[in-house]
Design a protein that fits this description.
The chain is mainly alpha-helical and 130 residues long. The protein has helices at residues 8-17, 22-31, 33-44, 49-56, 61-73, 95-129; strands at residues 47-48, 77-82, 88-93.
């Protein structure tokens, strides 16, 4: 490996360690509380705003709007506003968004499968600290 090259894992470590790097911001958008849920929901099908809000549950209109705008800016979500009365806006994943959503869903599924081990580790940690 040349002196200027870094291993893939090293690039990730450096990216996460630098608060100003663009990868960190994108990662935060993808893994935010609402970003993750939006991406996973949109894997199934496109949604209108109100449908998506019901599907996700317990998200304010303001937070869902901000999340969708952020994901749209990052190229993950496509907003399709139809010029009809009443206005109709559909949200769907772009190809980039679908790729990211599949990764996020895999992490969510792994967490679901491994939750018992995580809870056990927490209990052991808390018991050792008490």
């Amino acid at each position: 490996m040349a002196a200027t090259e870094t291993a893939p894992g090293e690039r990730i470590r450096l990216a996460v360690g630098d608060a100003m790097c663009p990868q960190r911001g994108a990662l935060e958008h993808l893994t935010s509380r609402w970003g993750t849920l939006v991406l996973i929901a949109l894997l199934d099908r496109p949604y209108r705003f109100s449908e998506l809000r019901r599907e996700i549950g317990r998200v304010s209109e303001k937070m869902l709007t901000q999340t969708l705008q952020t994901l749209e800016r990052d190229g993950m979500v496509h907003r399709d506003a139809k010029p009809v009365i009443p206005p109709r806006v559909d949200y769907s994943l772009t190809d980039l968004g679908r790729e990211a959503a599949e990764q996020v869903r895999a992490l969510a599924l792994w967490t679901d499968v491994r939750m018992a081990a995580i809870e056990k580790a927490r209990e052991e940690y808390d018991a050792a600290k008490a």
